[in-house]
Write a structure and sequence with these properties.
Layout (H helix, E strand, L loop, with lengths): L1 H35 L5 H11 L4 H22 L8 H40 L2 H7 L4 H36 L7 H11 L2 H27 L7 H29 L1
Helix pairs in contact: 1-6, 2-6, 3-4, 3-6, 4-6, 4-7, 4-8, 4-9, 6-8, 8-9
């Protein structure tokens, strides 16, 4: 019985992975086609950008300002004791631009937009709106998934850039009230340590995180069958998968960066 159960779980997991890979491919193709054609769903992209990007600006600003300010204040007070005061700029680039910036933005988007998308699509399945789209010849992936796919991915990239600006520049302004630093020295050393691979790594992470979040949210939302009780279950699964895959992707990209 145990072997039978393990075998059944393995088969179901393999089927789910293959189905998820196929769904991701269809979503990616529909998104690329969506960008080349004028479609009604462009309004959905705008609304998704407003909800995922614009409405999250205050949260992202607060997190980035707090993180950057704490790093600067702690670094300025501790590192000079060991004769390594310039390391504060390397730490800022590593923590804010390359590591925590993309990851924290992804977590915020998962908590806000990922759950909202999965819930919305799940309720559309329960209320038979998806069946109505199919019966009228409308492809749900092209009309519902592709705009959200594009909107969430663009929002994560833009929020990451916004996080970097506030984390590196805004936090410097904030720290002037507690630990004054020469503006020329700060920005000169910051640009000295900021390298092109750091920027590429940050943008690549935000792009991949955006694809992961949009995929897990739409995929699990549309996996709801008939009962409304399945909606919160799929939302929780979407959040768990989003967090897990983003952390794994972050670790892989970081390892590639240091190879």
């Amino acid at each position: 019985m145990l072997l039978q159960r393990l075998g059944r779980q393995s088969i179901n997991s393999s089927h789910d992975m293959l189905y998820g890979a196929g769904f991701f491919y269809q979503s990616l193709v529909a998104s690329l086609q969506f960008m080349r054609r004028r479609q009604v769903g462009r309004g959905v992209i705008t609304m998704q950008l407003l909800f995922t990007g614009v409405e999250a600006l205050s949260v992202i600003a607060l997190i980035s300002l707090s993180l950057g300010a704490v790093i600067i204040i702690q670094g300025v007070n501790i590192l000079p004791q060991f004769g390594q005061g310039v390391l504060i700029y390397k730490i800022l680039i590593t923590v804010i631009t390359r590591e925590l910036g993309p990851l924290l933005c992804a977590f915020v988007v998962i908590a806000r937009s990922g759950t909202a998308i999965a819930t919305e699509l799940g309720h559309m399945v329960v209320s038979h709106q998806i069946e109505a789209y199919i019966s009228t010849g409308v492809n749900p992936i092209r009309y519902l998934v592709a705009p959200r796919f594009i909107g969430v991915t663009l929002s994560v990239i833009l929020l990451n850039l916004y996080f970097n600006v506030f984390g590196l520049v805004g936090s410097f302004i904030l720290t002037q009230f507690f630990q004054p630093i020469s503006a020329f020295e700060y920005f000169h050393n910051l640009l000295l340590y900021l390298r092109t691979p750091d920027i590429i790594s940050s943008l690549l992470k935000s792009l991949i995180f955006g694809l992961i979040i949009s995929h897990t949210a739409t995929y699990n939302g549309l996996k709801v069958q008939q009962s409304s009780t399945e909606v919160p279950q799929m939302v929780i699964r979407s959040v768990v998968q989003g967090f897990t895959l983003c952390i794994i992707a972050d670790a892989i990209i970081t390892m590639i960066y240091y190879i």
